[in-house]
Amino acid sequence: MELRQYIAILWRWAWLILLGVVLAGGTAYLVSVNMVPIYRSSATLFISEGRDPTVTDYTSILTSERLAKTYGELLASRPVLAEVIDNLNLGVTFTELESKVAVKLVRDTQLIVVAVEDSSPFRAAWIANEIPRVFMQQNEALQSGRYATSMESLSQEMAEVDEDIQRTEESIAGLERRGTAADQDELARLETNLTRLRGSYSELLRTYEEIRVAEARALDSIVVVVPAQTPRRPVSPRILLNTALAATVGLMIAVGIVFLLEYLDDTVKTPDDVERVFGLPILGTIARIPGLENPPDHVVTAHHPRSRTSEAYRVLRTNVQFSTIGNPDGILLVSSPGPLEGKTTTSANLAVTMAQDGRRVILVDGDLRRPALHKFFALHNRLGFSDLVLSDKLPVERALQRTDVQGLEILTSGTLPPNPAELLGSERAQRLLRSLRERADVVILDSPPALAVADAAILAAQSTGVIVVVEQGRTRTEEARRGKEALDKAGAKLLGIVLNKVTRKRGYGYYYDETGKSEHRQRS
To answer: Residue 300 in contact with residue 349, Cβ under 8 Å?
Structure first.
């Protein structure tokens, strides 16, 4: 399939594609407008691991990045969110709050972004700031617990030594006030003990300070570098984006449906389809005739000879004349694969245009089952083709009826027989057709559909040329093939195809409108 055919398909189904886009986009717009707006607020944290003099700077950076991933998981943990709920009196469950919190690590950095989405912009900012604060408190308490036992033990020992020092100093002061020679040895012992106690206290104090410094070095640093701010605009719904995406999806679905329908639709739609199915040329392309209320309205070439439809039938007449250039006069059969495809309308207008061209034309209603030509030309059907076949004594002149078109005579179907196929295939019918051919330049036979009954094949065998009418978008390709096969088996000479009831044409043409005013426009 060529690009122009794809474009033609899309143009033909443009209303469905537009409907799909409007429905999808409109639905998305209405849903988005009625959604509760959601606001997002975020805080940025910087994570730094406690320094260890024994590790290199590069190793420290890698460890800090891993630590940031760990803290990223802990920030949205149950203990942290549960305390946030209590502190802010949120009145929600852990699961509800967890669904609103998103923790994201900034790639190749030690930064963590805590984002909170909520229907209230103020509450979103409060929660986004409270989560880091609660987490830092819990983390500090957890890390400090590693040194708490040692520091508490040292503090108790220092207190005991301090009490011993105070008691020893009081004893020394009492002995010095008495100043007796007997107390000199005891005084010397107490001073020696005081010196030892003071040394022990100094050692304990030094150890305590070393532990405190080690704790400070090992404590991980968490700093809020960018606190959360109250957002001014909601992050969802994004009405324009949602509408555009939905409209795009609707467009894609509609286009998919269009091509699916085209794939499933096996009707004849284009001249290329006609040539592919029949292998015959297009003799004419007739547009759908509007405003057909009464049967005579179908004969547009008689009532509106300067219309565009009449011009299309004149093109058909010219192409038929070229197709029969070796045998310009004869019997032309107009048929179609199925009913209601416009064969009677085509035969009537083709007969009128040939008569208008100065030829003597006899139009015969060969449909002895559902005749319609007498209605098209407002004639009676009391005497016609079947009556002439059944009675050798009945002259042809009595059955032929003149029309308002000079040179055109109509032979209606006449009395409907019980056995149309046998009557059409009789020797009398053949003699009648030869007699009609001698009386006119061309005889046009309107026959039943080729697939409905055998009548069309019988008449085709007695004709010098057959014109097949197919309706755009109605005639199925399989029916068209079977109709052609039926006519081929009868030995018919197929002149070409008329593509009828076309909804659209291309190209340029010079036409007259219904009032006779000329117009030159592009047909689309």
So the answer is: yes
Rounded Cα distance between 165 and 193, Å, is 9
Residue 156 contacts by C-beta under 8 Å, 6 or more apart in sequence?
none
Instruction: Check residue 268 and give its pLDDT.
Output: 84
Which residue type is seen at 155?
A: S
**CB crowding 115-149: b at 16 or more within 10 Å, else e:** bbbbeebebbbbbbbbbbbbbbeebeeeeeeebee
Beta strands in 241-329 (DSSP E): 282-287
Question: Could you give the CA distance from residue 114 to residue 44 in angstroms, rounded to a whole number?
Answer: 6
- Residue-wise pLDDT for 420-444, tens only, equals 999 999 999 999 999 999 999 999 9
CATH T-level fold of 271-517: Rossmann fold (3.40.50)
Give the pair of three-digit tokens for residue 410: 């109509």
Element (H, E) at 133: helix 121-178
**Beta strands 401-402; 408-411: pairing state:** antiparallel
Is this structure's pTM higher than 0.85?
Answer: no
Distance in Å from the first CA to the final CA of the chain = 21
In whole angstroms, give the CA distance from residue 200 to residue 481.
Answer: 116
Whole-angstrom Cα distance, residue 494 to residue 450? 13
Strand partners, 114: 43, 103
Q: Residue ranges per domain, the chain?
A: 3-35+237-264, 39-226, 271-517
Q: How wide is the angle at C-alpha 331 spanned by C-alphas 312 and 383, nearest 5°?
A: 100
